[in-house]
Specification:
It is built from twelve helices and four strands, in the order E-E-H-H-H-H-E-E-H-H-H-H-H-H-H-H. With about 350 residues, it is mainly alpha-helical. A hairpin with a 6-residue loop joins strand 1 and strand 2. Helix content is about 70%, strand content about 5%. The relative contact order is 0.10.
Length: about 350
């Protein structure tokens, strides 16, 4: 009797038609795409990830190093993949933190508006004093009295604000504001600000960012640009942290093993930060001491994690945890802040 074969639509391999699923790729043999199938597959995939996430979350939070050890030893389908765990928790953190960053941006923008209003009121006041002073100078009998009461600098025009920024940029903010109000072209404003054609890339970028700030009068957007660079900085920090672990535990596995531990550790770090953000959103007067204790728990989590994962004694694990933490916080973290500031400068 001849075998009845069918071809998989996914991998194009042939197999016996009585098989309900392709033995090569696992796709259903008679996979008709209907709305119900699409909906069910979406829910199935979503909740299968959710199930593994919740199964992984408890050991992540309360059994430091356990998930990394299980993953390295080959148990890789029972729990959520370390990269997935890290991405999922970090996305939740940045989503919740966006509410706080929005509030901070609004506060900064409001303060800038108030400062601008105070500046305008001051300029108007000085102009009025100058006008009154000039009128009084016309009266000869008031000349001596005026000389005693008014300062020499009040005889000039209204005070102009100067903006001193890095890269040797120095210009009159009042004059630039006037040109912006008059609708002058950016090229004309750059020339007035002092930008030269042969200036370097960073200097020209500084002029552009300064003009953008003067047009928008929004410091909150600078803060947003800084926060937006955090994921990139963390993407750089994570493998560096794994490299530090590799240096201290070079006989304890490949670099990929240390990277797995780093993914789970950073997932825990973002979980703690997420809890702090939730506490702040629910309780505006979130206690500083409680926040400090939660952050301090990260150090003890790292200590217990490396002890379980690498299997060394308490004393050596505690010593290495201190040195790793010192190197990371004193060298790597400041480097990340520089990267974040530079990215904010470029993409503000």
């Amino acid at each position: 009797m001849a075998r009845s074969l069918t071809e998989c639509k996914n991998c194009l391999q042939q197999f016996d038609s009585h098989y309900p699923y392709c033995p090569y790729c696992g796709q259903k043999s008679d996979d008709q795409l209907t709305l119900g199938v699409l909906f069910n597959n979406t829910l199935s995939n979503y909740f299968s990830v959710d199930a593994r996430f919740f199964k992984s979350f408890f050991p992540l939070m309360f059994k430091p190093g356990y998930l990394a050890k299980q993953f390295v030893e080959g148990r890789r389908l029972l729990y959520l993949h370390p990269a997935q765990m890290y991405l999922f928790i970090s996305i939740v953190f940045f989503f919740l933190f966006s509410f706080i960053s929005r509030q901070q941006a609004e506060i900064i923008d409001n303060e800038i508006k108030k400062e601008i209003e105070r500046s305008h009121l001051y300029q108007d006041s000085v102009k009025n004093r100058v006008a009154i002073h000039k009128d009084l100078l016309a009266e000869k009998d008031s000349l001596v009295a005026l000389d005693d009461k008014l300062k020499p600098e009040d005889l000039g025009e209204a005070k102009t604000q100067s903006s001193n920024t890095p890269f040797n940029i120095n210009f009159s903010e009042t004059e630039i504001d006037s040109m912006i109000t008059a609708g002058a072209s950016d090229e004309a404003i750059y020339k007035k600000m002092g930008m030269e054609a042969d200036d370097g890339f960073l200097t020209k970028r500084a002029y552009k960012q300064a003009l953008k700030f003067l047009k928008n009068k929004s410091g909150g957007s600078i803060l947003h640009a800084f926060y937006d660079s955090v994921p990139l900085a963390m993407f750089i920090l994570l493998p560096i942290f794994a490299l530090i672990l590799k240096l201290f535990y070079h006989k304890k596995g490949r670099f990929a093993h240390h990277l797995v531990f780093s993914f789970y550790f950073f997932a825990f770090l973002f979980a703690i930060l997420t809890l702090i953000v939730i506490g702040y959103l629910i309780w505006p007067n979130f206690p500083i001491w409680l926040m400090f204790l939660m952050l301090l728990s990260v150090f003890f989590y790292l200590f217990m994690g490396v002890r379980r994962f690498y299997g060394q004694g308490i004393g050596m694990s505690f010593f290495k945890t201190n040195v790793i933490s010192f190197l990371f916080l004193s060298i790597v973290a400041p480097f990340a802040l520089v990267i974040m500031g530079f990215m904010a400068f470029l993409f503000y």
